[in-house]
Design goal:
This protein has 135 residues and is mostly beta strands. It is built from one helix and seven strands. Strand 6 and strand 7 (112-124) form a beta hairpin. The longest helix has 9 residues, at 85-93. It is globular and about 40 Å long. The two termini are 28 Å apart. Mean pLDDT is 86; it is low at 131-135.
């Protein structure tokens, strides 16, 4: 497992996200996303790979979801501040450190996942089978 280079996140457009899990152990929250990078994403080092993104020590998380079944497709995954005024206000009220990165994932369905974590890691899993998304 290695630290994520924020520039890599731009290559995740059109990637399938078959799994999102949140774990809490010993007072530390971990977010794990399994992502199947599109075979033609434009980055030969990532194209067609199945990756696991692990956000360790998640300090805040915002999820907007709808009643949509099936595998979600990532529209964008970025290192950026939340557009949500409530999320920003909660960050201030919780006195979260300003130097801790904030990530935003937008799905093609309109669903959204935003999170603040102390560490974002990535690991390559078994080869991806890219299904359930448009090419």
């Amino acid at each position: 497992m290695r630290a994520v280079d924020p520039a890599e996140l731009g290559w995740l457009h059109d990637a399938a996200c078959p799994s999102i899990t949140i774990e809490t152990a010993e007072g530390v929250r971990t977010l794990r996303l399994v992502v199947d990078v599109h075979p033609d994403a434009g980055n030969p080092a990532l194209d067609g790979k199945r990756l696991a993104f692990v956000a360790r020590d998640v300090l805040a998380l915002e999820l907007r979801t709808y009643n949509i079944a099936g595998i979600q497709e990532i529209n964008s995954f970025r290192l950026q501040a939340s557009p949500s005024e409530m999320f920003r206000k909660n960050r201030e009220l919780a006195k979260l450190p300003v130097d801790v990165p904030e990530y935003q994932i937008w799905f093609s369905s309109g669903e959204h996942l935003g999170f603040i974590c102390r560490e974002l890691l990535v690991d390559e899993l078994l080869a991806a089978v890219h299904v359930g998304t448009s090419s």
